[in-house]
Here is the input.
Amino acid sequence: MKSQENVRNWYDKKGVECLNFFEKSQENEVVQIKKILKYLPKKAIILDVGCGIGKPVVKFLTEKGFEVIGIDISKEMIREAKLNVPKSKFKVMSMYDLKFPNKKFNAIFSFFSILHLEKNKVPSVFEEFNRILKDDGYLFFSVNKGKEEGYYDFFGEKVFFSSYTNKEIKEILSKSKFKLNWKREFIFEKGNSKEYQLYYFAQKSPN
Ligand SMILES: C[S@@+](CC[C@H](N)C(=O)[O-])C[C@H]1O[C@@H](n2cnc3c(N)ncnc32)[C@H](O)[C@@H]1O
Here is the structure.
């Protein structure tokens, strides 16, 4: 898929620079995770989809004692992640092609990663999330708010990116059989950049 080739190459080249720029925004990911820790079983198995360099999410969850697997489409991101969190498992894998058995995970985390998917393919990716989650498993993810879809200049090179309205996300969740527990909205500002960020904490609905 052309958009995926673009995203993979972009992160191989620009990923470290980009994720360093968003360090403050990533700190908020940990603040949000702390709010949902109480729902996770002590021995939870967690998948971080689009884990980037493994910091802060995989690192934080591993230090909390969970078994965490991080996957990312970019081999450079996975290379960095392995250096940052040597105790955890990482794999180069696309979320369009999840190679995990049914009902393996207690929770899936995916912060600012599904925004690199083509919008019309997101419901089937979420159906796959649903398949690999245990009954009542959790899906915690974030996107940017907006109505974009296409190739946008970012850090000097074009990358495929989509932003979402709350209505779109709610439709995707209900199509893929998730119920929404809560949603939060934040503004992230740095330099000339201003982002409206949406966080969703959802749970697999009983069949
Ligand atoms: C904005 S970064 C977010 C990284 C990390 N989740 C965080 O919040 O710091 C998006 C990540 O998603 C990954 N990604 C994009 N498309 C993907 C796909 N189809 N499958 C797996 N990872 C993907 C990118 O390589 C990149 O590491």
